[in-house]
Amino acid sequence: MAWEYSEKTKQLFLDAVHGKPGTHLGEIQNADGFGEHGSIACGDSLRFTFRVEKNEADPTLDKIVEARYLTFGCTSAIAASEALCVILEARACTPIEALKITNQDIVDFLEGLPDQKIHCSVMGAEALEAAVADWAAKRGVDLAGMGIHLQEQLEEEEEGRLVCKCFNITEPFLRRKIKELNLRTTAQVTAALKAGGACQNCLHAPGGIQDILDDVWASERLRVQTAQPAGGYVPVPGNAAPAAAASSAAPAAPQLVQIDGAPVSAGNETASAGTPQGFGNAGADGGGALPIFGQPTLTPSPVTAPAASPVPAAGGSALSPYQFMKKIEEVIENMVRPVLLRDGGDCAIVDIKGNLIYVELRGACASCSSANVTLKNLVETTLRQQVQEDIRVIQV
Amino acid sequence: MEKSIIYADNNATTCVAPEVFEAMKPFFGPDYFNASSMYPAAERVSKELKLAREKIAGFFNADSENEILFTSCATESNNHVIFGTAAANPARRHIITTMVEHPAVLMVCKEMERRGYRVTYLPVDRQGNLSKADFVRALEPGNTLLVTIMHANNETGVKFPIQDLARITKETDPEILFHTDATQSVSKIPFSMSKNGPKTGLAADFRNIDFLSCSGHKFHAPKGVGLLYMRRGSRIRPILIGGHQESGRRGGTENIAYIVGTAAALETAFRTHFEDYGKLAELQRYFESELLARIPDVEINGAGADRMPNTTNVSCHFVEGEAILYELSEYGICASSGSACTSGSLEPSHVLRAMKVPFTAMHGSTRFSFSRYNTREEVDRILEIFPDIIARLRAISPFSRENQH
Asked: Does CATH place domain B18-268 in 3.40.640.10?
């Protein structure tokens, strides 16, 4: 994937990186406006600051005279940050007027951005909004009174239901940006906001990006055509999707059986059959009824291959898997390890699968070229004699 | 190309070697015939095909030249093994792989999950190593169909002990098939497929490996040709059906020019790879010790693991990889990155994530991968430029050691 940046983007990036005079790299100390957007985990982040020429009579007439940025991000993220500062300083406008600057202005200034990089320009516009909110708070400007709800919007968007967990993007933010940027497809949402761009699970999940898109544009269509409230997807506070799934699934769930007051599903019934009473039987028929996964290391694994199941020694008595494992451990501990330790070596059991015993050699044994021979001769012979004739030892 | 470049992206692809180009030329000219044709004019073509197969079987120390299959790329070889073994062994429904495989294995395994197979994705530690104990526990005798584990990782160069893993697999259950994607190591590490073991002690003993995939363009052959080693008697079905070529195991007219080129490329590699290996290892030691000395807050990913001598994956904290690559390209240096912005998916490298590389370093990863054509002078030039790039980007970054998010 080659770079598809405009000459303007490339030039802005290189000028900024090489600290060309007139570029806007840096951070204004005690800035009048301070805003951040993104995070290192998301792969890009912008810290934006501006200084105003104060109008003592009316703070709303403060004029932005200087803008600076620090950016962690790709070529276009850095170029977009630079562009934002240039645009602002050229306009020499009030912070409230600055809110009219959109990500499209940044894209235009950069003479275009590749589709998958649009989010770099959005990051600039978002950091600007955050900085203006900060300025208003510091200067006592009542934005809400003027019909501009930046602070409320920031809070709502931070606390809203999380839709994209990879990039930490909430539903209220998505709804606003989908409208503002006129995003119509999930691909456009990902390009502009990154949402859904990593694990992609939220794209088509219930209450996910596709549902939100459908709802935003459906309600718009309905409003235009019939001026009636929209149907379709209704946002639920908190974790909406599982709640909806659970309630719709409940009536269809199989009937529960009450045993001693405790509800037991069919699945639990099987599990309870594997408790100690069932254990001895399992051993006799090869241990096939035991759960395969999530067991502790030394529990013998059941195996489906007949050749690999623990077959009792000819004429010997059958051991349960638990007894079998205990016996192996005992023999290794009392008869094998002492011999190895004498030669400066050691061994440990890694796993037991039926008649296969996986053993790791340590210390002097591990680097010994005759390690395999040691194993075969000592461990395997001893185990075969003491426990079961068909045991095979595998060195790990 | 208006300016001379330093090519340090050989894990992505390599240049075609001049001798390979020469060897291929006749097949674009007078020897254009179909290897399957009967007339005498086509004879040279079928002879060259046979010769190439024999040569490659020799380099791999295979017991039979029929164990070498020509494909279009390593991706095809990997697909062939996974789909083909599943089709031939329907009773087995479990596959073992790792979290750091190339997408050509990983995505096929995901597809197998969709088809109802169970797949175990083995994790790696902070250095990129697998745990043998995890591996052993994942094996299910009688149920596991296939183990598919790469030899060397394309992003970090970390090598897995496939020789041992294959032995453990076969000792557990000889019916479990073992496949390795050796795309990054073929031509760089000598190995032997023979059941009788290697002829010399230098080659890794792959006698327990059933399938091995690789791709010509990683070792100075052209793009568009791959190899699949297939042990005689292995239970596998073809996936490209429609011709008697490759003994019916892969239909399609043989790509003679590229097959001959692959044999020629391997010939050079096997003639020189011992010295190349030593030279690259020395260059790597020098390059990495200088990087660590010249750049603060930097780490070599997989430094503590057994690694390929040609791959250096370096993470510079607090900066973003795509910007690094762009700056490098301004100086004519070609490298690559595991950063989200270069992946096309907005998600940083799955390999570095599996290794739990911290966020502050993950996005700033740069991979330099060298070949026998790289020189000490080129490495010095990179060492001259790279630290300055990092310093400049750090000056722009809102993050630093003092201010970690």
From this structure: yes
Chain B hits for A392, Cβ within 8 Å: 171
Query: Measured between CA atoms, how close is A196 to chain B, in angstroms?
Result: 9
Q: What does the pLDDT profile of chain B (405 residues) look like in tens digits?
A: 446 899 999 999 999 999 999 999 999 999 999 999 989 999 999 999 999 999 999 999 999 999 999 999 999 999 999 999 999 999 999 999 999 999 999 999 999 999 999 999 999 999 999 999 999 999 999 999 999 999 999 999 999 999 999 999 999 999 999 999 999 999 999 899 999 999 877 889 999 999 999 999 999 999 999 999 999 999 999 999 988 899 889 999 999 999 999 999 999 988 876 677 888 999 999 999 999 999 999 999 999 999 999 999 999 999 998 899 999 999 999 999 877 666 566 678 899 999 999 888 888 899 999 999 999 999 999 999 999 999 999 999 888 766 654
Output the CA torsion A242→A246→A252→A254 (10° steps): 110
Residues of chain B neighbouring A354 (CB-CB closer than 8 A):
141
Does pTM top 0.90 for this prediction?
no
Residues of A in contact with B329 (CB under 8 A): 3
ipTM of this complex: 0.78
B300/B314 Cα distance (integer angstroms): 5
E strand or H helix that includes residue A128: helix A118-139
Select the residue of A190, A198, A308 nearest B173 (Cβ to Cβ).
Answer: A308
**Which strands make up the sheet holding A345-353, listed edge to edge?**
A345-353, A356-363, A392-395
Cα–Cα dist B228/A362, whole Å: 37
- Assign A54 to helix, strand or coil: coil
A7-148 CATH, one of 3.40.50.300, 3.90.230.10, 3.90.226.10, 3.90.1010.10? 3.90.1010.10
Q: Is A10 helix (H, G, I), strand (E, B) or coil?
A: helix
Domain boundaries, chain A: 7-148, 160-236, 321-395
Helix and strand numbers (H, E) in chain A are 17, 10
Q: Give the position of tokens 């990036």.
A: A13
Catalytic residue at B341? yes
Residue B344 pLDDT: 60
Helix B376-396 and helix B256-294, axial crossing angle in degrees, nearest 10: 60
In the numeric block, which tokens belong to residue B108?
């096929």
Contact B139 A297 (CB under 8 A): no
Strands in A152-284 per DSSP E = 162-164, 169-170, 257-259, 262-264
- At A88, list the tokens: 């602002």
- What does each C-alpha distance from B122 to A265, B119, B135, B151 come to in angstroms? 32, 9, 7, 14
Question: What are B246's two structure tokens?
Answer: 């490759």
Q: Best mutation site among B297, B318, B329, B341 for testing chain A: the one with the most A CBs within 10 Å? A: B341
What Cα–Cα distance (Å) separates residue A246 from each residue in A115, A243, A250?
Answer: 38, 5, 6
The SS3 of residue A72 is strand
CATH 3.90.1150.10 holds for B6-12+273-396: yes
CATH assignment, A321-395? 3.30.300.130
